[in-house]
Task: structure prediction
Amino acid sequence: MPRSLPSAVDPTGLPAAALALEQPASRADRVRDALRRAILDGTLAPGRPLVERELAEMLGVSKTPVREALKQLHSSGLVEINAYQGVSVRRIDADTVRQLYTARASVEPAAVRLATQGTGSFAAARAALADAAVLVGSGETAGLGIANRRFHRELYLACGNPFLCGFLDQLQDLTAFVATAGWRLRATFLQESAEHEAMLDAAESGDAALAERLTREHIENALTTLVAVLDEQAAR
Result:
């Protein structure tokens, strides 16, 4: 007969059984991070099937944390689940890019404007921009994509609105994925770096209208470039 879980409660008021659930979740998070990195750097290319057994063998874990990690990656938009073909890395097309960047353009500039009108510091955004500048010269696009997303998040996070931040946070991984995949077709990260610098300068100077406009233009520029590149690829 299986033993029952202990009913003891620790000084924080949490049942001991709840604490016992942390280790499996932690392992799934590590698997998720490894797969996320492999997707962003192109090791796992768009359309690549993601078979639980194969991934578990590659990572030296059981299928359970892999299954949980794939669920998390599906929630972030990095993988697709098809009833007939199973799980695969998301394929990128112009329609997906349009929908993603239209969503960002509708919300992110307003969040940056609110952040600029506040009293918070943009030191973390400046640090992320410095990290991205180092990576621009290294050619390490996966790391650059993550650093750029960190920059954007630190910029809009100061808006103080958890609903705006929560919505934009949900788009972070998919935006990094689309950006890094786009760079493999056309390297635009130098232009984007300059646009980031201008956005941050406007925010640090307290010019909310300019910070909002530059953010919107930055997103629209990326959308135009990515759609053009994808249309060129589709026409070949």
Remarks:
- The chain has two domains: 16-89, 94-235.
- The beta strands are 79-82, 86-89.
- The chain has a mean pLDDT of 87.
- The longest helix spans residues 208-235.
